[in-house]
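To illustrate the input format used throughout this study, we show a single complete record. The first block contains the structure-token representation of the backbone; no residue identities are included at this stage. The design step must infer an amino acid for every position from geometry alone.
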């Protein structure tokens, strides 16, 4: 014969306990996803800050580069004019070729900056 406790227990619904286990599991899943979401948001925030600083620094480099390009082009024109007046080849002026090469290299900086902005 069954005791009174066993009779009462046998009449209790069995699914209620499994539902509570499922609900507890879902709560744990929600907490894990919330914690992971917070971590991702913090990582993303750090990356955005780093990118913003880098782009700001890059913009400063572009500005300085453009200033040097402008000065270089003005100087190049003067050198070409004076070289013609003297009847010499501008390339014979010390480091004229180097200046032109660096100027061309600097012109590519702004192009790369614009590509970087498009990639973001």
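Output of the design step:
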């Amino acid at each position: 014969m069954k005791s009174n406790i066993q009779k009462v227990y046998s009449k209790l619904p069995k699914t209620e306990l499994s539902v509570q286990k499922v609900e507890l599991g879902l709560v744990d899943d929600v907490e894990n996803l919330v914690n992971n979401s917070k971590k991702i948001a913090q990582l993303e925030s750090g990356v955005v800050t780093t990118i913003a600083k880098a782009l700001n620094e890059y913009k400063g480099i572009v500005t300085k580069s453009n200033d040097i390009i402008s000065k270089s082009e003005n100087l190049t024109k003067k050198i070409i004019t004076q070289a013609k007046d003297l009847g010499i080849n501008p390339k014979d002026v010390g480091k004229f070729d180097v200046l032109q090469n660096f100027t061309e290299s600097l012109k590519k900086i702004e192009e790369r900056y614009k590509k970087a902005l498009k990639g973001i």
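Structural context for interpreting the output: The helical segments are 4-11, 15-86, 96-119. Residues 40 and 46 are 10 Å apart (CA to CA).
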